[in-house]
Design goal:
There is one protein chain. Among the domains are: 233 residues, no CATH class; 221 residues, no CATH class; 66 residues, Herpes Virus-1, CATH 3.30.40.10. A three-stranded antiparallel β-sheet has the order 6-5-7. With 1098 residues, the chain is mostly helical. The protein is built from 41 helices and seven strands. α17 packs across α19, α21 packs across α26 and α34 runs parallel beside α36. β1 and β2 form a beta hairpin.
Length: 1098
């Protein structure tokens, strides 16, 4: 009756209030809790009889308020007006006041009056709690009408489970006793036909309930219920992976672990550490678990093999990383057939081994390089630098994750289990990477048959990190690196590698003698990392250098190709093909530059390079320990090295030194600021040691690389005027003692490097040596050591001086000849007759002109350096450069070039844009005169100049003095010294001419067969039995140590003095001169009417 007087809005509001199920008073004031309310649903006793306040009669006797009164009433005051609900209606919620304890103060209302405490809810019994908790965890219902829970999650109806309970007469509620039979029904009806996903979510909810529940103690029955539910969830998760056919309606056909490994572990569908903990603990009981994880890791790898750094790769890395943290899971994964298959090709390691796709990810991949360096030819240095910084940050994070994967496998221990462990299999995989990629260092690399540079750089970086624990600054663990490792069935294959200083047969004999014992982990890592640097970092540097050269050729070809467009412009078919080919060339050029920028950006990572240098410190010290047989670094290195070389050093692969050279060449030329003083000292030691003892190293390229390191180390950068190594070389006692001799020795040896480019190589090597000498020349101690070298080791020093003269003579001649040809060709091209030539002839002339210009630029730079070196050395050691063996050649060279510079042909040196070739005639003339002046105090030079019958001209000295005075290129003192030298040479020339005239015709047997000069110190060559002048053959042997008559090897020590002939020549010369001078004196006396003096003997 009351409802009939209510509006629809009031009815709706009353129904909502009724769901709260609480009693209320009819008044609008504060309600008083009813002590006779029905019990909470957790109680098992039936509800008590309703009180008078809630009886229907009481409700009917209550006056029905009007509409306006209802709006003014407190709606909660109407809770007491609710009639008793039908049993099938919504459940009643009764709030009971808690009984106030005597000691606790009563809560008060806002007006200050006491408010009685609500009654505490009676505890829920275990069966009801169990049913409610299990239904919430598994999100199921035993009532068909319940399709969603209070949070809106869909519920699975367990029809079969309900039917079984009713059939057995059990209460319709879930318990752990029924759970195992019901869980199959749950999984079979899992959403989307994904039982594993459903059970995994149940497992995670159970875990959260266990972790966040409030239990009375460790033996609380509720805890046991949840633990049992968790155990069953895990068991059936395993079944869903290993035996999915036991469930109905399964939609997935692949390993379901993979998708969930890719998900966030914190998400409901992500595999968390609790799941992996439980699975790992059960692996001993069920072999299928290990197989499932192995299959999942393989599937992760396959999926990642088609992804690059532009894609979403992080989840794959995280998935494998999470698996590898568990020893048992890691152990089974490393036993996969995909781990390190022996038959895999080098180019397939990145995609067909389990770890390959993870290490393959790199900015050096072409698609990634394109995205970072799009349109590279249009980008400025700032853009490229920023992009390189970005790829370094990205790659650095990725490499850290790769190291965590590897380090997990390496650190796992299995006490009591026989090898191999995951650590051993990880080393096997690294060995596979380096052993399959030997062709990366071939003369001509087919990059389709080897692993990518990005892949190998990642391998190298991770191995560097793996070595860090034993790379301490004090070298305390260097003894753990076993020199006999390569003779003990090593993982690293060196059978095809060139050895440091033995042939292949000697190396095979040495390594055929197996060493006893076993190799430790430190040795394994050390040798693998050295090999990885050779095939990784150094190979990438070499390829980048090769690409720089090739892309320049492509750019030249592109210009020539575009010039032919006019040939196809009138034919659309050929024009389209032309455009297609043109675009291919442009794309190739862009891709090459993108790859160059990406690779260079990776290599410029200062953190990785610093780690690499720390490893190279160990390689340096370890090599020197083997070569010197000293306990380095505890002892100071002593040079020279022992004459007898240790087999263990001679038979090492050549890359043990190449890695040092290439690594530090790159560092000193690109990022020298990251090197520490201690590393600088060690690199100086290794460079000086093997340049001082060049016989220890067979490959001239390695030795020239040592010079290059010193050269780059002396180049200025930032605020270091003498570069990275200059100050160290100037101040180091070790360098004072050995550096100059080492440089001089290799300067001589560079004459013949044994390569097809040796002619050009020697000039590059000697140029770098010049720069190092110029850097250290500020220290007078080096000059004093050079003087001692000249006095103590005369033959060696003469050979060195001779090489300097050879180079100076050659480069001066080539550069000045090039200017003459440029002058002539320029005149010819500018003449009217040039237009009458055919197109082919004109093109030939123009190409010849450009070739001469290129030669002039190259040789002119070498000329300036050679002359500067001559000035330095002749100023410090005038005696050494006027020794009989070299003084005549020096005088001839200087006279010849002086004649070109100031003689009648000097006009031929005039060229347009002389500065383009760095040609400064005034400076070059000054340099030549300075060498003359430095040696002007030596009579041997005066005599040698006067004997030069080809180029010496007195007027050249006069003309040179005039030019220097007019141009003010030299001081007055130097000009006076120059003039004095010219006068003395003229006097000596007159005396020499007079003597030659007096001697007249010299018998042929007294003439040197090579130069046709009168012999002074004749010697017999032991092989050909020819007699020659000692100084002539000495000079010949300085450049070519063979007998010039039969090409057999010859040393100056082997020649035999011909004392009899020498005495005969001296007698003949003395008698001839005395006779001729006597005749002249008599003739002069007769002409003057004076009796001639008797000059005959007796």
């Amino acid at each position: 009756m009351a409802d009939s007087t209510m509006s629809d809005a009031e009815k709706i509001r009353m129904r909502r209030l009724a769901k709260l199920g609480g009693p209320q008073n009819s008044g609008s004031g504060p309600s008083t809790p009813n002590q006779n309310d029905t019990p909470s649903p957790s109680q098992s006793s039936p509800p008590s009889a309703p009180s008078a306040a809630t009886s229907p009669s009481a409700a009917q006797s209550t006056k029905t308020p009007t509409s306006s009164e209802q709006q003014k009433q407190n709606p909660f005051a109407q809770l007491g007006m609710k009639q008793e609900q039908d049993k099938k209606g919504p459940p009643q919620i009764t709030v009971r006041p808690q009984q106030a304890s005597p000691s606790a103060p009563a809560k008060r209302e806002r007006d200050g009056s006491e408010r009685p405490r609500s009654k505490q809810r009676e505890p829920e019994n275990l069966e009801s709690w169990q049913d409610k908790s299990l239904r919430s965890i598994f999100r199921v219902s035993l009532k068909p009408e319940e399709t969603k829970d209070t949070h809106g999650n869909h519920l699975l109806f367990l029809g079969n489970a309900r039917a079984e309970m009713e059939q057995e007469g059990k209460p319709v509620r879930l318990s752990t006793d029924d759970l195992e039979s019901a869980i199959t029904e749950m999984a079979s009806n899992a959403p989307g036909g994904k039982p594993f996903e459903y059970l995994l979510a149940c497992f995670k909810r159970t875990t959260r309930a266990l972790r966040g529940g409030r239990f009375s103690g460790p033996d609380d029955p509720k805890r046991e219920v949840l633990k049992e539910a968790r155990r069953l969830c895990m068991s059936y998760c395993i079944f869903a992976v290993t035996m999915p056919e036991m469930f109905e309606n399964v939609a997935t056909t692949t390993n379901p672990l993979v998708d969930h490994l890719l998900a966030d572990p914190e998400a409901d569908v992500g595999i968390c550490t609790d799941f992996l903990d439980e699975a790992s603990a059960r692996m001993d009981e069920d072999d299928g678990i290990g197989a499932a994880f192995t299959s999942a890791a393989e599937d992760l790898s396959r999926r990642l093999s088609v992804v690059d750094m532009n894609g979403d790769y992080h989840n794959h890395i995280r998935g494998l990383m999470n698996l590898m943290r568990y020893p048992k899971i890691c152990d089974v994964i490393t036993q996969s057939e995909m781990w390190a298959p022996p038959g895999v090709a080098a180019q397939d390691i990145e995609t067909q081994t389990l770890l390959g796709p993870f290490f393959r990810l790199s900015p050096a991949q072409i698609e990634v390089a394109r995205s970072y360096f799009s349109a590279p030819k249009t980008r400025d240095r700032a853009f490229i630098s920023n992009a390189q910084n970005a790829i370094r940050m990205t790659l650095r994070n990725h490499q850290t994750e790769l190291f965590e994967i590897v380090n997990s496998a390496v650190r796992h221990r299995f006490p009591g289990k026989e090898a191999p462990w995951p650590k051993d299999r990880m080393l096997d995989w690294f060995a596979l990477c380096v052993n399959k990629n030997h062709k990366k260092r071939a003369m001509r690399v087919n990059y389709k048959e080897v692993s990518g540079d990005g892949f190998m750089l990642n391998v190298t970086t991770v191995l560097d990190q793996l070595c860090e624990p034993f790379l301490d600054a004090t070298f305390s663990k260097i003894d753990k690196i076993d020199p006999d490792y390569l003779r003990r069935n090593p993982r690293v294959d060196i059978s095809d590698e060139t050895k440091i200083n033995v042939d292949q047969k000697a190396a095979d004999d040495f390594y055929g003698q197996t060493a006893p014992g076993t190799s430790g982990f430190v040795s394994e890592c050390f040798f693998l990392t050295v090999a990885a640097h050779h095939y990784g970092t150094e190979a990438a540097q070499e390829r980048m250098s090769t690409m720089r050269k090739s892309v320049k050729r492509y750019e030249q070809d592109l210009v020539a190709f575009e010039a032919d467009r006019h040939k196809y412009v009138n034919d659309p078919r050929y024009l389209a093909r032309f455009e297609e080919q043109l675009n291919k060339i442009k794309q190739h050029i862009d891709d090459t530059w993108s790859t160059i920028h990406a690779t260079h950006g990776i290599l410029l990572d200062d953190i990785n390079q610093a780690r690499s240098m720390q490893f190279m410190r160990y390689v340096i010290v370890w090599n020197l320990r083997l070569a010197s047989r000293q306990n380095l670094p505890k002892e100071e290195l002593k040079l020279p090295l022992p004459e007898e070389q240790a087999d263990v050093f001679r038979c090492l692969p050549e890359y043990f030194l190449e890695d040092i050279v290439e690594n530090f060449k790159f560092i000193t030329s690109n990022i020298p600021q990251i090197m520490t003083p201690q590393q600088c000292a060690e690199i100086v030691q290794v460079c000086v040691a093997f340049l001082r003892n060049t016989e220890y190293v067979k490959n001239p390229g390695v030795k020239s690389g040592l010079v290059t390191i010193l050269f780059y180390g002396c180049q200025p950068f930032y605020n270091h005027a003498r570069g990275l190594l200059g100050d160290l070389l100037i101040g180091s006692p070790f360098a004072h003692k050995h550096l100059l001799h080492a440089l001089m020795r290799f300067y001589i040896e560079a004459e013949s490097t044994g390569t097809h480019t040796q002619f050009y190589d020697k000039f590059n090597i000697r140029y770098e040596i010049f720069q190092v000498i110029k850097c250290i020349w500020a220290n007078t101690m080096y000059r004093e050591n050079l003087a001692k070298e000249a006095n103590v080791n005369t033959d060696f020093f003469v050979q060195f001086v001779n090489m300097i003269l050879n180079d100076a003579t050659f480069v001066l001649d080539e550069s000045l000849s090039s200017f003459t040809k440029i002058h002539e060709l320029t005149k010819e091209v500018s003449s009217a007759a040039f237009s009458t030539l055919s197109e082919e002839q004109r093109k030939e002339k123009q190409e010849l002109l450009e070739d001469q210009k290129g030669k002039a630029k190259s040789y002119m730079q070498l000329t300036r350096e050679s002359m500067e070196t001559l000035i330095l050395f002749t100023e410090a050691l005038p005696d050494a450069f006027t020794m009989p063996e070299v003084v005549q050649r020096l005088a001839d060279m200087l006279d010849y070039n002086l004649d070109i510079m100031v003689g009648s042909k000097r006009a031929n040196l005039r060229v347009d844009n002389a500065a383009e070739y760095r040609f400064d005639p005034k400076a070059l003339l000054t340099d030549i005169v300075k060498v003359f002046v430095n040696l002007s105090g030596k009579d041997r030079l005066v005599v040698a100049i006067s004997k030069d019958g080809r180029s010496y001209k007195p007027e050249n000295f006069v003309r040179a003095a005039e030019l220097m005075q007019n141009k003010s290129t030299m001081s007055p003192e130097a000009i006076r010294a120059w003039t004095s030298l010219g006068d003395r040479v003229a006097t000596s020339r007159a005396a020499g001419d007079e003597e030659e005239e007096d001697l007249g015709e010299v018998p042929d047997e007294y003439l040197d067969p090579l130069l046709a000069d009168l012999m002074v110190d004749p010697v017999i060559l032991p092989s050909s039995r020819q007699t020659v002048e000692r100084n002539v053959i000495r000079q010949q042997l300085l450049s070519d140590p063979i007998d010039p008559f039969n090409r057999t090897p010859l040393k100056i020590e082997d020649v035999i003095p011909n004392d009899a002939l020498r005495g005969e020549i001296e007698t003949w010369k003395a008698e001839t001169l005395a006779r001729r001078r006597g005749e002249k004196a008599r003739a002069a006396a007769e002409a003057g009417g004076v009796e001639a003096m008797d000059t005959s003997a007796g």
